[in-house]
Amino acid sequence: MKLLEERIRKDGVIKEGGVVKVDNFLNHQMDIRLFNEMGKEWKRLFVDKPINKILTIEASGIGIAAIAAQYFDVPVVFAKKTQSINLDGEVYSTKIQSFTHGRVYDVIVSKKYISAEDHILIIDDFLANGCALLGLIDLVEAAGATVEGIGIAIEKGFQPGGGLIREKGYHLESLAIIDRIQKETNELIFRQNCTK
Amino acid sequence: MKLLEERIRKDGVIKEGGVVKVDNFLNHQMDIRLFNEMGKEWKRLFVDKPINKILTIEASGIGIAAIAAQYFDVPVVFAKKTQSINLDGEVYSTKIQSFTHGRVYDVIVSKKYISAEDHILIIDDFLANGCALLGLIDLVEAAGATVEGIGIAIEKGFQPGGGLIREKGYHLESLAIIDRIQKETNELIFRQNCTK
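The joint structure predicted for all components is written out below.
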């Protein structure tokens, strides 16, 4: 998606170790107009899918998922990190390794909000090694629900997550895929794909 | 706001100790259509304020704030709980006591995203004792920015937060204020206010 690629080039900050910080517009400050364009694009890419619910994970997926949900006219469920004493009843749970925070999270979703009848679009901000996404897929499949598609804002094409998920046959649409970062110039090289 | 009050009556679950669970539509599963009506209502209530940014706190404030931001055409910044190693540079920080989770959080916001020129609308899902909200006000005022208003989805009128915040002179608009819960019938009694 050209609009997102241009924004990453303009406002993304490249750090050591392939870290691209986009907290100016994506995951600390959120550009809601941009999120609307992303939502429209996912709707175009998943238009033929019978999606009745969006699943994301706290915290930075929530804003993107909420705005995107307007184009599908469906509710959003966000998976929660660590058991909240306020979340009663039975939950589906999985463990997700976070490289960013250097720890393992328990991630849960109430059984009330995903069931075998659900056709789920998973939305998240980043895809790198794929741990978070595989955890969300686990939760959906534990409920017997169907993963109709996966929408990611920014995929790091030089990390294994995207390849892993596509090999498993999931319909994954990343709006911007960073294939590499030119060492000398710090230029971002994006993969050509089918997004607008 | 009648629509929200009716929804709380219909789908809220009353627990021991004055806990009202609304994870069916507000803070686990999110009803995005309802959030749009809430956003419209806050716009009506704060229409005369020169708001240029919305501040909320992860996680359950984010979806509401993102949708509401569309009616103000402004970006959203969400304050983060605990220091993320991926959030560099200087931050404003405060400590917030969470009674729900029985612990104290460090809450931070990057200095890049709130400045003295900002006119902030604070949005959050719940107001009970007011700890989270006072923390967010701290962050805004540490930056020298102006709190133009505070929009809350559900206020527990039988807890001290709302009174405390209003006494300090802030323009607080809670879309539903639960004044008490009838012990025998578990009926929710809402405060009459100026929301639609």
